[in-house]
Amino acid sequence: MRNSKLNIMTKTAILSVIGFLIMFIEVPIPIFPSFLKIDVSDLPALVGAFALGPVAGIIIELIKNILHGIFNGQTAFIGELANFLVGAIFVGVAGAIYKRKKTRTNALIGLATGTIIMSIGASILNYFVILPLYETVLHFPINAVVGMGRAVNPAIKNLNTFIVFAILPFNIIKGVVASVITMAVYKVVSPLIHKEAENVEAVQNKA
After folding, report:
1. Which pLDDT belongs to residue 199?
2. Is 28 helix (H, G, I), strand (E, B) or coil?
3. φ and ψ at residue 38, rounded to 5 degrees
């Protein structure tokens, strides 16, 4: 049992580091403000959530963002907080749905549902928590954020339209990209997923 727990902890740590490294690979999208960039650092957390359970996926999200904040912290951990909260919603929902029935179809349902809930959650969090924190802690005015959005999308007039036309669609695209890649590697990681799932269940039964 001790070896199984150590194995789970080791894989969680490895996936966390991989996620942390992938965070440095960001791709800007011209239709969004420059600070909104796509990365697929949720991929290791999704694999972890499918293989080891949704809690493990959330822990991976937490560790990768702590590492990023320590080694590349430029936003007083506000950016990392946002990434963690949004990512935790995504992998938590996807992992919880997949855990109920471990099939390819359920994985797809989990990813789709996770993308939708994540996008809505990201919109709410940015409106009430993240953007106000940027303004309060880093003295970066919300009006300036809206202005950056308006520069690439004239439909953005205020904070409400910024959320609707920038934050919401950005996170939908981010979720879709991560989901497509996850499903693309499903056949490769599927044997590992089911093997680790059995190990986790065995450990839980012995505990």
Report:
1. 61
2. strand
3. -80, 130
Return the DSSP state at 27.
E
Q: How far, in Å, CA of 45 to CA of 85, rounded?
A: 13
CA gap 42, 68 in Å, rounded: 13
The separation between the first and the last C-alpha atoms of the chain, rounded to the nearest angstrom, is 8
Q: Exposed/middle/buried for 144, CB within 10 Å: 0-12, 13-18, 19+? A: exposed
Work out the burial of residue 204: count CB atoms within 10 Å of its CB; fewer than 13 is exposed, 13-18 middle, 19 or more buried. Answer: exposed
Task: Name the helix (H) or strand (E) containing 175.
Answer: helix 168-184
The amino acid that residue 184 corresponds to is: A
130: which residues sit within 8 A by CB, 6+ positions away?
Answer: 78, 81, 82
Residue 74 pLDDT class (50, 70, 90 cuts): confident
Residue in the structure block whose two tokens are 């109920």:
100
> Could you read off the pLDDT of 178-189 as tens digits, one per residue?
999 999 987 777
**204 pLDDT higher than 90:** no
- Assign 3-class secondary structure to 33-102: CCCCEECCCHHHHHHHHHHHCHHHHHHHHHHHHHHHHHHHCCCCCHHHHHHHHHHHHHHHHHHHHHHHCC
Residues 83 and 39: beta-carbon distance below 8 Å: no
